[in-house]
Amino acid sequence: MNKLTNTAGQVAFRLSPVAAGCAIFVSAMAGSAFAQEAAAPAAQATPVQSVVVTGIRRGIEAAISVKKNQDSIVEAISAEDIGKLPDQSIAESIARLPGVTAQRSGGRASAVSIRGMSPDFSTALLNGREQVSTGDSRGVEFDQYPAELLAGVVIYKTPDGALVGQGLSGTVDLQTVRPLDFGKRTVAVNYRREKNGVGLDSEGQGNRFSVSYIDQFADRKIGLALGFARLEGTSGSTTKFDSWGGGEAQFNGQTVKVPYNGFGAFTNKEEQTRDGLMAVVQFRPNRDFNSTLDVFYSEYDRNKVTYGFQAPLNDSWVGNDSPYDRPGQLVNATVAGGSATSGAFNNVRAIIRNDAEKSIDDMLSLGWNTKFRVSPTWTAQADFSYNEANRDGRNTETYAGTSSVNQLDTVSFTAGSHAFGTGLNYSDRNITKLTDVQGWGGSDIQAGYTKAPMVEDKIKAVRFSAKRDLPEGMFFSNVDVGVNYSDRSKQREFTEALLAVKGGGRSATAAIPGTGTGVAGDTGILVPVFDAVASMNDIYDLKQKLHPDIYNKDWIVNEKITTVFTKMNIDSTLGGFPLRGAVGLQVLNTKQDSTAYSVNKAGGTSDSDRPAAPYSAGTSYTDVLPSANFILDIADQQSLRLSLSKIMARPTMNDMRASNGFGVDTQKGIYTGSGGNPELDPFRAKGLDLSYERYWDSKAYMSLAGFYKKLDTYIISTTRAYDFSPFITPGTPVLASKIGEFTAPINGSGGNIKGIEATASLPFNMVSKYLDGFGAVANAAYTTSSVSLPDTAEGGSGSDMPLPGLSEKVGSLTLYYEKHGFSARVANRYRSDFVGEVSTFTGDRTPTYIAAERIVDLQLGYEFQDGPLKNLSFSLSVNNLTDATFQRYRKTKDNIIEEVKYGKTVLFGVNYKL
After folding, report:
1. What's the pTM value of the predicted model, to 2 decimals?
2. Residue 48: is its pLDDT beyond 80?
3. Would you give the DSSP letter of residue 117?
């Protein structure tokens, strides 16, 4: 199969993590005080003078200070907060902020939603530079970023005129340290031993280690920060139950409801290793010149093995036209109220699965920023950056079943239970063999399947800006103007093959290697277990699969974006009250194109000879995005904030792909097809935000905010009339008309999103001196949307479904105590039901309904305050304390299709700094 070629060029090198002993690296670090002026003004507002790995209140106060002094409406996290909590990645920390939620993947927070919009509507920056993604679209997978290597996070909920790369729902700016903002050399070491999957039948374990070094040289003209963080470990044996939904069956001449049409039950075990590296070199010879070079690298390796049992039960619709087709019949049932509360299905042809998934994700970000004063009133800035992410994966499935095609089973069930009974002993390797159990290979044999997905994403960007201070007494205090150019290219590619048992035909079998067995999920069914990858070359031949749908998984999307921006900061009064803030304007010109395959499914007699030709298309557009942020200080430490803006988000890359395929609908007598649309315009919206904020210095605050986003345009997938003339080949059947139906994303009218958010942070000593050391941080948000989309989720009925990523109710509550070196914190975060995304067996992302979840984390700690052990601290943490189950369902919550139990994670940590 000829794969698409990306003509944008390839990087000539890859950065690999060096051995831990070759350098000293960064652990939990204090906030950066001198990030890029336009990109991270929050860090400038809250300089921190030393690395702090303990200090709950100090972290809270630093975050309050950031929020208070920002022009935009923001949420913030300081390094103290990140360092104090046992978060594997920055995603876990972000998910505790007001109006922010995360979807769990493998038990870990990964994708982040802001204000009820899917991850693709937000943008992730690192030190003000847009980040690429190892996923299929734009949504950054935040578990790629070790929390230990970041100094702070600012989430912009309203636009900033000088912030390039903003999202429709918000912008997440991750920040690293600037070493010259530290008063002295600082070294910190952090180690955590963890036990994973506590409460499951089999537990896992792991280690987390980080070390930091920050120093200043040449009379504090040169600064250096180096950091390394490593995560390694195994998960517990998580269980997953996948229901195929209920249905109706015939029993004793009547129609009864049955709880299961079929099911899959699996046990998973995962190994993971993540290495993170950060380095910053800063040169500041005087107050008028500052140049900073920073590097951030992360490699995340994951290996998961899965074994389980799949059983189609109520498949009464199949015929008897082949040995593989035997309809299941309900027998031995107990019926109450028209429903079978227990019973069995015969003619079951079960599949035993042993699968393996491997992925290697790596990300490299390089940035060089130089700021210098040209004159007493003018300052200039130049920024060059390169960001690359790659994902290489391999997913392997193997199938086993009875050695004879005529040997079928009877499987018993009880409604509401995951315990099933079988008539056959599938752990007996004399009964169970590797084979094409269900005849999926057709005329060939499919005793397994393998996929190798690849993603490569790159951004090259350059930015120039200048800032002029204006005379005192004017309405505006300064003006910032600049231009940013970015060139992004993303490529996705799939290679797929059937696994055929060596030396045999469609009914060939092979013995299952080894002697291991395991229980399939929580069903009680014992199945044979073996290493699918290690046995592959000895047992199987790989037969490359060239189905048209596989061609349509390969695509390249390119974007070239030129942004001209200006921002003017306000320093004035209104009605005698101090007025501050900023107004800004961005003009963005976007040129986008995509290259993929056009597949003529009607042009040949088999998958291998159907024409698949490269196809390219694209468009360009210009957006003018004004923004205004006003802060009116109505009383001492009380402010009203008002934000007005126009915002946009470019289409998802999967929607922008040039892939298309078509065939003939024989019933309608027309050409029909589906694909992407590289000529899409972006999502566009107008935003209004209003908030009231009350501060007590940086000790405490409360805020109440409301927001409204009017979506002028939205992107929706729909079927429309389409002229297939450009794609018809001589081998295509000739129809009366070349006009047919094509399903693809298009631009349509939008709707609105609106919500309210309330936040409070209070140390209880402000209430009573007897409560000194105690405190709480709480937030809640309620968000609704008028956007209605066709229900494309699993089991969707075609009627409307909620906006993807939208949880109407989200909130978190943190209670803490810290005094005399002792600390304790319990954090509870909640999100209501929402539509998320999961990967299908084809490798594509699909919407799915995800049930509400509540995650509780606990941490206890002690730090020596004086003596020879000063600055040594210990911590004990329990994540997912209540063992929250991840659940997906079809349309209604009583139709659960997947339940996954991850168990608790217990960590014991040791921290030391000097």
Report:
1. 0.86
2. no
3. B
